[in-house]
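Run log, item B.
One chain of 246 residues. Sequence copied directly from the ordering sheet:
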Amino acid sequence: MEFLIGISGNISVDQGGHFPGYKRAYVNNDYIESTTLSGGVPFILPVLEDEKMIKAQAESIDGLILSGGQDVNPLLYGEEPTTKSGAPFLARDKSEQLLLKHVIDQRKPVLAICRGLQILNVAYGGTLYQDISEIEESFVKHDQYKNTSNPSHSITVKEGTHLHSLYGSGILINSFHHQAIKDVAPGFDVSAWAKDGVIEAVEKQGNQFVVGVQWHPEMMAKEHASMLNLFRLFMEKVQQSIKEKN
């Protein structure tokens, strides 16, 4: 059985060359490779404005991977942007919030990664720290130097969660973020955190597989079986979801 996995896309703007200002829809190839290695068929879902088309995107896939990228607009969770907040991408924020809600309403599995975790939390009523420097207790380096496939710090995993079924009480992860969850959205539970208390993962309450992680497992999956196993678990839940509907 082939599983059609939607991967939320981004837009880059050429800064030079023959077409300055030219816009391109894309995702980083690690998402595509991790999807294929774990048995899924990847589809890039571009940023759209029309909700009917976004709903059609959700209906056409079996599961959704929310990819990383820009900071989430603080206005979406009732805050003014601070001087440490990055440039928002309003169209992407809106598109992904609608896509998420349609996919979740259709009872399809979701794996949200880095920014994906943050937009998931905001879409369902949570808030963010616009910069980790706002967390007085934070001491872990959450934005590691390059070497994207290397683990850089540890996390603690909560017992009884999807992540605990893979990693037990803890694991080493990579880390590339300057924002973090502040208030967890209603209906979600924290499933992993760093040694300084920064939230590293959340899971939706109930039996629907909706898992958000703050790190980048797709960057580690080719070299670390533990991270490929997260994608494989996601695929298992996709298969289970399809069987339940049939």
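Observations after the first pass:
- The radius of gyration is 17 Å.
- The chain has a mean pLDDT of 96.
Flagged for discussion on Thursday.
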